[in-house]
Amino acid sequence: MKIVFFGAGNMASAIFTGMIEKGTVKAEDIYITSKSNRVAAMEFKESLGVNVSYDDAELCKDADYIVLASKPQNFTDVAERIRPYLEKKTKLISVMAGIHIARIQEEAGMENAVARIMPNTNAMVQYSVNGIAFSDDFDNKDELIELMASFGKNVVVGEEGMDNITAATGSGPAFLYYIYEQYAKSLEELGFSKEDAEKLTRNLVIGTGKTLSERPESFEQLRTDITSKAGTTEAGLDTLSEFKLQEMISKTLGSARDRSKKLSER
Ligand SMILES: NC(=O)C1=CN([C@@H]2O[C@H](COP(=O)(O)OP(=O)(O)OC[C@H]3O[C@@H](n4cnc5c(N)ncnc54)[C@H](O)[C@@H]3O)[C@@H](O)[C@H]2O)C=CC1
Ligand SMILES: O=C(O)[C@@H]1CCC=N1
Description:
It catalyses: L-proline + NADP(+) = (S)-1-pyrroline-5-carboxylate + NADPH + 2 H(+); L-proline + NAD(+) = (S)-1-pyrroline-5-carboxylate + NADH + 2 H(+). This is Pyrroline-5-carboxylate reductase. One of its GO terms (biological process) is L-proline biosynthetic process. With 266 residues, this protein is of the alpha/beta class. It has two domains: 160 residues, Rossmann fold (3-Layer(aba) Sandwich); 91 residues, ProC C-terminal domain-like (ProC C-terminal domain-like fold). It has an eight-stranded mixed β-sheet with strand order 3-2-1-4-5-6-7-8, sandwiched between helices. 31% of the residues are buried. It binds 1,4-dihydronicotinamide adenine dinucleotide and (2S)-3,4-dihydro-2H-pyrrole-2-carboxylic acid. The site of 1,4-dihydronicotinamide adenine dinucleotide has 28 residues, from helix 1 and helix 4.
């Protein structure tokens, strides 16, 4: 197996670190190349044992998968690096938000099989949620699905579903982090030090996440379990429900989805 990452930034490193730490792919089977962060690439070579190369012919030779992990804006440059050496058997796996399969095939020049994937940075701790959309001619889908299961839960969607997945779970962690930031700031307002506010919020979120991973009850049931009649939670929830929280979240996701659509326009 030879997997080549064009791009060694946040997302690529979350994926290959997840794969290696889970033991699904050997570090020696992973090749990375980048443009801007060559020092970081060398650090991954030292810490994980992956191969680093800037020789495009060597990188593309006999590759099973090439992962397109640059920003969408850099895709044309990446395609120029790959096009002269791309072999027909190589499958292209795009992490890039909003770039359609048809454009990838066109710029790669050979109509290779393509899968668009939309993981999130929780791949680093093997807890990503991965949307996957395949081109019609993509064979042995199970191999890719299995590789991706090493760093998260997979949802196979049609390509038209990718904009929604990108908003919901690709960008999703950032939306949740933003809420945790506000939570920590509010704890400071209550009188906690900055350090304690961060520590309390972090552990609240970790503990809640662990509960969710172990208990099957609905969110509503878990919330109800905490809410004593005429107690503190009820008082807080009464205030919380005065705000249009769901509307805020729907609009947030809508903007992210629309940007994903926009990225696909050339
Ligand atoms: N960060 C996230 O949470 C997620 C990001 N994505 C997608 O992943 C992609 C990468 O995002 P990040 O990792 O956050 O960006 P990043 O800025 O951390 O990494 C981009 C990488 O692309 C490399 N690159 C740029 N031009 C190149 C070229 N011509 N040849 C080879 N490498 C080149 C850069 O050197 C860098 O290593 C984006 O397309 C984004 O839409 C998808 C899901 C989640
Ligand atoms: O912000 C972005 O465009 C990328 C896609 C999903 C998460 N990060």
